[in-house]
């Protein structure tokens, strides 16, 4: 990968980005060429470079996001698809509601469903209250990170769950959409965040039932 010249990358960061490019090239060998992988990794890096609070983690965030986007593109282009339904949770900051929903989806569905999340105006970090109340249920969302959505991610989703992003939420024909009206946990007291958490879990369980997926 040719690292973006407008970023002041340390030697360690450059090495990390190049290593990420090599891993992605191996993972998607025969599916995408080096140019496509470089383009997705570079643009994913750009998504976080301007707002990352810990620059050391930028290459890792870029790699994780690029991997998700490449899987989405592969499905959209009919190059790979394992038949599992893809659910996308969207809110404003991708720091609370959508992250809790993703956590419950992964907890209850395991590998039976592919889950993604995104925000119209991604925040800088996951809401501490959301992390705390999910930890009470034995679900760790502290390692997640706010991120935007991209066209290929939305196009690859079978179900799009929106939570308060309004007109900013992307609409593509032929997809199942649901709007979940939920309070934003930002700045709420923990008891109120717990109420939101429990509501999200009930909705996720109903969603899995509608998809024919047995919840664990």
From TrEMBL:
Keywords: Arsenical resistance. The keyword Cytoplasm does not apply. NCBIfam families: MSMEG_6209_Nter. This is Putative arsenate reductase ArsC. The keyword Glycosyltransferase does not apply. One of its GO terms (biological process) is response to arsenic-containing substance. It comes from the Bacteria. PANTHER family: ARSENATE REDUCTASE. Residues 85-210 form the Phosphotyrosine protein phosphatase I domain. It comes from Cellulomonas xylanilytica.
